Amino acid sequence: MRELEISARTVEEATRVALEQLGVTREEIDITVLKKGKSGLLGVGAEDAKIKVMLLEDEDERQPGAMSDAADAARQVLSDILHAMGIQATVDVTGSGDEGVPVTLNIEGDDLGVLIGRRGQALSSLQYLVRLIVAEKLKKWVSVNVDVDWYKKRHYEALKKLALRLAEQVARRRRPITMEPMPPDERRIVHITLADDPDVMTQSTGDGDGRRVVIQSRKK
Hints:
Layout: E1 2-8, H1 11-22, E2 29-35, E3 49-55, H2 69-84, E4 90-94, E5 103-108, H3 113-116, H4 121-138, E6 144-148, H5 151-173, E7 177-178, H6 184-194, E8 200-205, E9 212-217
Parallel strand pairs: 5-6
Antiparallel strand pairs: 1-3, 2-3, 4-5, 7-9, 8-9
């Protein structure tokens, strides 16, 4: 059983973030509300909600051979790549890859910075390679997420907090803010984080590696 704590503007939003990070459904986690959060008056005195999420494991899922074909194939592919690179590490698997639930592979070990690369570029390439090989093996596309010591999870959390801070500035000043160029998965995090914000909206602009997210006020 694994647990983590998530903070967001509301309990519902924190729950959605937890499900995205763990790659599971609501039925596969247990949620404890640590703080309900406050909206404050005109943003003053606002406090984020905070929850503790525990990933539930069925007894059958802990038995050898219970892993889905997609999850087992993804883990084997990644393990083979790491072995070929001469990297000693373990691969933790969550998610089945079935019915839209992604397979999440987290690599754990020492001195794994080479797998992350500058701004996560090496990790993105590794994930893409694993997805291609798994798709070829199973003759179907499987959503596979690859992480290293939960680097992406921590990075996404920091990115969400940044997006919320910038959104507050945009709402207060009513002037758009253009973020730095980001890859598609990071832009998606920003869009999702601010999707329900009543004061701001987001859009992507630019081409290729220079594509950015613009946060702008909904009010003229």
